[in-house]
Amino acid sequence: MDCKGLCVDIQSDASNCGKCGELCSARGSSCQAGQCTCPKGKTLCNGSCVDTNTDVDHCGKCANKCSVTGTTCQTGSCQCNNNQTLCGNACVDLQSDIAHCGACGKKCPNGKCVAGQCKAGLSTKGKLVLGHYFSCFIKVSGELWCWGSNNSNQLGDGTRNPRGLPAQVKGLTKITQVSGGMHTCVLQTGGNPWCWGGHIRYGELGAGQYQSKFTPYQLKTISGALQISVLAQATCVLEKGNTVSCWGNNGYGKLGDGTTTHRYKPAQIKNLSNVQQLFEKASDHQCALKNDGTVWCWGNNVFGQLGDGTKIAKSKPVQVKGLTKIKHISGGGGQASCALKSDGTVWRWGVLLYGTSFHAGNVINTTPVQIKGLTDVTQLSMGSRELACALKKNGTVWCWGSNKHGSLGNGTGTGSITP
User: Fold this and answer.
1) In this structure, what DSSP letter does residue 242 have?
2) Percent of the chain with pLDDT over 70
3) What H or E segment, with its residue span, contains residue 235?
4) What's the rounded Cα separation, in Å, for the pair 89 and 80?
């Protein structure tokens, strides 16, 4: 046939298939018997010839996408890799997943799945640590198990799916300490730090400025660390020489290096030595307990949480006024600071927010004041923002602050400004 002065075979010409100007435009298609067709074994989907047996965007049929993370298209159906099974919208290991133990939807009420069978849950022996709407438990064997919110990948399981039951953080052994906020960091025996989390903007994992890690990532530049402490978009470590290094977001000078410049790898705080403890976790300020029993703080100070008598942020450590013979400090990630003295008394400075301060009327204390009526304390811990608890020698627990979720454990919903 004559098509614009050219003699063509409209039975096989891909530019004039069946008639002049009829183009077989689909990728991989050809003209056969005057019809645009795909090769044998391929199907025309959205302008392309695809193999519906293997194509993840057209699995089994056009537009049937394998959208679940970890799935591929195998023989025309979306299937999980690595011996996992598709349960709902997630690929899971039926041998170990406590929400799908042995079969999809079969939950282990005691929190442990071994070889597809529900077993006894977490041992009561170990250490429980609270993060930002999630919890972790370090077993005496050194295994780490976490559960709760996972919107920033803080559970380290490679997903953002929340977990209502404990799940082991795979690939980690010999864990001795964990600190969690919107990201999570741990120490192994020997002081090797590992971190993970999503939505990373300031290099708080130590892997680079925008480098998120959904599973544990080892910071190989640090070894022999004594403690690790997570802040808001930042991280600090107490190193084996009893010095402190920090990295990440440096708003308010919370990295303690004398600047507000963000750091994407660890930078040691100068003129801070003989440190024995940092806050377990923090927000925009950090404190260090020195071997001589004094406390030094830096960062945000809008509520007097540095304890230096001012409300001015400090980018270098300043000594908390009038505080000596301290054996433990706690910050909890809020706008207050707490310290336990060797005599069993508790001292606080700064403020707990939203009407639940240590002192009536949200009075800001820029220097430490003793919490009256609280003596013989052996352990002290502050929760995120609005809660603190103390364990006394007689085994009783005393809490104060917010009670909007029953946090005080006293059977009411009313907050208390005193223990």
Assistant:
1) S
2) 91
3) strand 234-238
4) 11
| Strand 2-3, strand 35-37: pairing | unpaired
In a 13 Å sphere around the CA of 151, the CA atoms on its Cβ side amount to: 5
Of 18-22, 52-56, 155-159, 245-249, least confident by mean pLDDT is: 18-22
DSSP per-residue codes, 92-136: E-TTT-TTSSSSTT---TTS-EETTEE-----SSEEEEE-SSEEE
Question: Which H or E element spans position 91?
Answer: strand 90-92
Residue type, 77: S
Q: What is the pTM of this model?
A: 0.70
Residue 252: strand, helix, or coil: helix
Q: Return the half-sphere exposure (C-beta side, CA atoms, 13 A cut-off) of residue 327.
A: 11
For residues 150 and 134, the answer to whether their CB atoms sit within 8 Å is yes
pLDDT (tens digit, 9 = 90+) per residue, 322-379? 999 999 999 876 788 999 999 999 999 988 643 433 444 467 889 999 998 899 999 9
How do 184-188 and 175-180 pair as beta strands?
antiparallel
Q: What is the pLDDT of residues 10-64, one digit of tens each?
A: 788 878 788 888 888 877 788 888 888 888 888 888 878 889 898 989 999 999 9
Q: Give the Cα separation of 363 and 383 in Å (integer).
A: 19
* Distance from the Cα of residue 235 to its chain's centroid: 12
Residues 6 or more apart in contact with residue 1 via CB below 8 angstroms: 7, 8, 9, 10, 16, 20
The amino acid present at 162, given as its one-letter code, is P
* Token pair in block for residue 359: 């002192």
Distance CA 288, CA 306 (A): 11
Q: How far apart (Å, rounded) are the C-alpha atoms in residues 39 and 189?
A: 59
Query: What is the DSSP track for 312-345?
Result: --EEEEEEPTT--SEEEEE-TTSSEEEEEETTS-
Element (H, E) at 185: strand 184-188
The strand pairing partners of 50, in sequence order, are 43
* Tens of pLDDT, residues 61-79: 999 998 888 888 988 988 8
DSSP 376-399: SEEEEEE-SSSEEEEEETTS-EEE
